[in-house]
Write a structure and sequence with these properties.
CATH architecture of the largest domain: 3-Layer(aba) Sandwich
Number of helices: 11
Number of domains: 2
Radius of gyration: 22 Å
Number of strands: 22
CATH topology of the largest domain: Alkaline Phosphatase, subunit A
Amino acid sequence: MRQFLAVLLFLVAGHVVFAQTSRTPNVIIIYFDDMGYGDLEPYGMTGVHMPNFDQLSREGTRFTHFNVAQPICTASRAALLTGCYPNRIGISGAILPGSSMALNPNEETIASLLKAKGYKTAMVGKWHLGNKAPYFPIHYGFDSFLGIPYSHDIWPRNHEGGRITDEKDIRYSWPELTLMEGDKVIDTIKTHEQQTKFTGMFTERAVDFIKQNSKSPFFLYLAQNVPHVPLAPSAKFSGKSELGPFGDVMMELDWSVGEILKALKDAKIDNNTLLIVASDNGPWLNYGNHAGSSGGFREGKANTFEGGTRVPLFVRWPGKIQAGGIYSDLMTNMDLLPTIAAATGAALPKNNIDGVNFLPSLLSPSTVKGPRDTFYYYFGKNNLEAIRYKHWKLVLPHNAGSYTAAVHGKDGNGGKIPRVDVPLALYDLAHDPGEAYDVQTLYPDILQKLQSIAEQAREDLGDDLTSRTGKNVRKAGSSQ
């Protein structure tokens, strides 16, 4: 009898393992807002213990050269979901109330590709790719959506929730922030207290989705709206860190990641889930002690120096992706779509994309080099501001906001960001990750090589700084 039970238990255990590995993997993307390269304990943050981010680092691979396509909300999210440079698909900046810009429904997203593959799909959190129906997530491949249409500071109130009374303030005419379910408004957010509930609410909805769909492949996109200002830690975490509200928010986000990890383990789908955790762009440094850290890289959000585009990335897939690994090849958020498609067997979009498949390199990082050597740093509507080739970076002349020239704000008030003229410069990121030492006179051949790549970018995508129109760009959607 004991021998029979032992055999039975072995068969049951084998069935569970087979069930986890015999079907295509679940996919989860957790995307944070304005989280800088240095904001997490595995990337050097001090003063806030983050056991769940530490777990991600131990059980997955941590990336050190992961760049987003543009260092700002809407553009970064468009690149993530479509695998394209945002300017290729007509997207730029951060959509504000009244803007008619939206992601074109003709663009295929990670969600639509996986839905066609039979996946259940859901988005929770901040959207920021269209302000009105039919430009919300359920029209781009997501079966469900609970969240906010854009950043939580886009409302007619200050960081404490007080109503803006100055008619000259751009926020004066903005509508109240809404909470959406699908296409419908289910709540209106008028107080700071209401905003403190977002992280918990979004986490709980994500956990429920995992529980309800553990028997079939699913794709979950959890886009938390913090640590973007105004900081809004819940009562459970408020005052709990050494770093004030910013540290409190980071503790709560660490808790959120832990809840996702726990849900996967409880549902026994831990080993069959590809978990990707990243940020949309670097920190909004002019908010001082309410902003994060660029980890020593130059500048931050809305700037094409490394502090604006290089962000944390963890990829965890037990038994597939190296545990405790560090990946130092150049990668971008555009590369996630084709990599996910390769991992799941989903088709690639019919239209041309800019992302490349990293799966072979992620599965065998010691023997397969990453497939990307080149990256274009665009910003504004269509300004080509820099080029990266391997470990070299050419910064092209442009005008930009500069945090290094600013006096930062404090306690939720943002300091003004002066504009500066940025000159032509060549940096060797292998020896100078802070982009402090221009070496163009020492390496004229490298300078010429990167200038040639810049010309290729202008021909393909255009460049407003040199009045060039790209040959291969598509139109954004329009809600007008």
